[in-house]
């Protein structure tokens, strides 16, 4: 440990409240354990009158509801998981980033709202909102929740994904819960993987999930591999359905299934029963 300078801890002082705490020498940002505000441990001192963009106070909302939401966001805390070592820690709701106490990796906590062309990769524990005028062409988007209302041409991995636009999605989508909203009409070129999928609009493509629900006025066209599927009255499903293990691909499921023997039930009419032929 002594040979690696990045693992050495030094004392850092919070510029907001003056609280002193131990931080890694390679840390770029941290959270004060007393006031819960984000700061750079080895950045410029407040006496130099330099202020970074992240340290600027957010504009106050004019409405009472907006002020209450800002106050509640600062008071509440959340549990985030490190991208690298998967360790969980509790952070303040007003924090924009933090450092993993185990591996010293940087964790982005900001929310992203995309209103124009955007091609950089995103990896945050916050939310991503792609507006109707936005064009997201990132090779990788990892976030807590995503609302897709514009053109999306990348790979998405999140907890909750809501799709509400009409068009083609060439990339991969994997999430814990996926919602295809009522105004959506999408065609997915690659397989969608999720624990649960709700189809409220129109979708065509391949799905691998634990449960799939096609709600009223929803339409799903494509192959589905799931443990259970529900098509409500007024919904439509057209395609091949495989009920089995979601972890396997559809080709693997077909190969493992043994061909069943077609059994024809016996007829209830006595004249159709088999009779021995007369001896000659």
Describe this structure in words.
This protein has 280 residues and is mostly beta strands. It folds into 2 domains: 94 residues, no CATH class; 138 residues, no CATH class. The protein is built from 2 helices and 27 strands. The strands form 7 sheets. Strands 9, 11, 12, 14, 15, 17, 19, 21, 23, 25 and 27 form an 11-stranded parallel β-sheet that branches. It has a 5-stranded parallel β-sheet with strand order 18-20-22-24-26, with no helix packed on it. Strand 3 and strand 4 form a beta hairpin. The radius of gyration is 27 Å and the shape is elongated. The termini are far apart. The C terminus is likely disordered.
Key features?
mainly beta; 280 residues; eleven-stranded parallel sheet; 2 domains; elongated; five-stranded parallel sheet; single chain
Number of helices: 2
What is the succession of H and E elements? Answer: EEEEHEEEEEEEEEEEEEEEEEEEEEEEH
What is the domain tally? 2
Cα gyration radius (Å)? 27 Å
Helix content: under 10%
Structural class: mainly beta
| Strand residue content | 35-45%
Kindly report the average pLDDT value: 78
Query: Largest sheet at a glance?
Result: 11 strands, parallel
Q: Which regions have little confidence, pLDDT < 50, spanning 5+ residues? A: 45-58, 248-280
Number of DSSP strands? 27
Shape: elongated
Distance between the amino and carboxyl termini:
99 Å
């Amino acid at each position: 440990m002594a040979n690696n300078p990045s693992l050495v801890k030094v004392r850092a002082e919070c510029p907001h409240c003056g609280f002193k705490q131990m931080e890694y020498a390679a840390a770029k940002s941290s959270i004060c354990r007393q006031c819960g505000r984000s700061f750079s441990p080895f950045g410029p001192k407040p006496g130099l009158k330099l202020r970074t963009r992240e340290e600027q106070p957010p504009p106050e909302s004019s409405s009472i509801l907006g002020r209450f939401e800002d106050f509640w966001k600062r008071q509440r805390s959340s549990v985030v998981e490190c991208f690298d070592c998967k360790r969980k820690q509790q952070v303040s709701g007003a924090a924009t980033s933090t450092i993993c106490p185990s591996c010293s990796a940087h964790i982005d906590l900001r929310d992203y709202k995309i209103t124009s062309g955007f091609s950089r990769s995103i990896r945050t524990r916050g939310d991503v909102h792609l507006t109707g005028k936005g064009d997201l062409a990132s090779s990788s988007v990892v976030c807590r929740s995503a609302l897709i209302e514009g053109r999306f041409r990348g790979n998405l991995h999140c907890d909750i994904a809501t799709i509400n636009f009409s068009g083609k999605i060439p990339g991969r989508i994997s999430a814990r819960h996926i919602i295809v909203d009522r105004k959506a009409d999408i065609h997915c070129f690659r397989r969608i993987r999720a624990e649960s999928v709700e189809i409220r609009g129109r979708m065509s493509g391949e799905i691998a999930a634990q449960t799939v629900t096609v709600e009223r006025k929803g339409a799903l066209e494509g192959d589905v591999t799931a443990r259970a599927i529900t098509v409500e009255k007024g919904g439509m499903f057209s395609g091949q359905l495989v009920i089995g293990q979601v972890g396997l691909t559809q080709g693997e499921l077909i190969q493992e299934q043994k061909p069943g023997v077609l059994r024809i039930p016996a007829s209830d009419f006595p004249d159709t029963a088999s009779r021995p032929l007369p001896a000659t």
